Amino acid sequence: MSEKNGAVPHPFHEETLESKPIFQGRIISLQVDTVRLPNGETATREIVRHPGAVAVVALVQGKMLVVEQFRKPLEKMQVEIPAGKLDAGEEPQAAALRELEEETGYRARSIRHLHSFSTSPGFAEEVLHLYFTDDLEKGAAHLDDDEFLTCEAITLEQAQAYIAEGRICDAKTLLAVYAWRMYTMTGSF
Questions:
Q1: What's 110's DSSP letter?
Q2: Residue limits of the Nudix hydrolase domain (predicted)?
Q3: Which of 114, 101, 175, 184 is nearest to 140 (CA)?
Q4: pLDDT, mean of residues 151-170
């Protein structure tokens, strides 16, 4: 048996036998796949399909821009770096520039890709593209109709306090704070 590119699959590869769509929403879809396990048995895998997202570590005068908004799945307010989903056919860098300006009112004159990572590979295909900028000019925020948030610029010490208090607890913002700390200590990411 071989994969599409001609390579031999990994011994732990799970072959999809059937894929059943369960839900199609505005942002995500859910499917249940029946797979053949490496031992020949079958199992089901619930998979969330997501178009991908972007997030920006944006520094202005030595402080990081963050937004605070209510997150319904957590039932609480959350402090996060500016972020959002990719629109259909949108390039990640364009989305990062768009989301930064929409949520914070700042336009990046230049932006740099830091890394792309899977957010929850156990059940979701979402990949988040993380960018950095410290080359900003003030503009005006343009929030979506269903988006309610506040924006502030915080120090590294404030960010670490927000983590300790649980106000920052999402992976992308934790990663951003740790990357910012490394950048502060070493001058690079």
A1: S
A2: 48-176
A3: 101
A4: 97
**Is there a single domain that holds both residue 20 and residue 102?**
no
Domain encompassing residue 26: 15-49
- Residue 3, in any domain of the structure: no
In tens, the pLDDT along 112-144 reads: 999 999 999 999 999 999 999 999 999 888 887
This model's pTM is above 0.85: yes
Q: Give me the residue label for tokens 């031992």.
A: 39
- Domain total in the chain: 2
Q: Distance (Å, rounded) from C-alpha 132 to C-alpha 1? A: 42
CATH code at 175? 3.90.79.10
Residues 21 and 99 in one domain: no
In angstroms and rounded to an integer, the radius of gyration of the C-alpha atoms of the chain is 19
Same domain, 90 and 21: no
Residues 61-78: what's their mean pLDDT? 96
64 located within any domain: yes
The reply to whether 120 and 84 lie within a common domain is yes
CB atoms within 10 A of CB 57: 25
pLDDT, residue 101, reads 96
**pLDDT-derived band at 2, boundaries 50, 70, 90:** very low
Distances (CA, A) of 89 to 52, 86, 95, 107, 116: 11, 8, 10, 22, 17
- State the DSSP string of 26-56: SS-EEEEEEEE-TTS-EEEEEEEE---EEEE
Q: Give CA–CA dist 149/64, Å, rounded.
A: 16
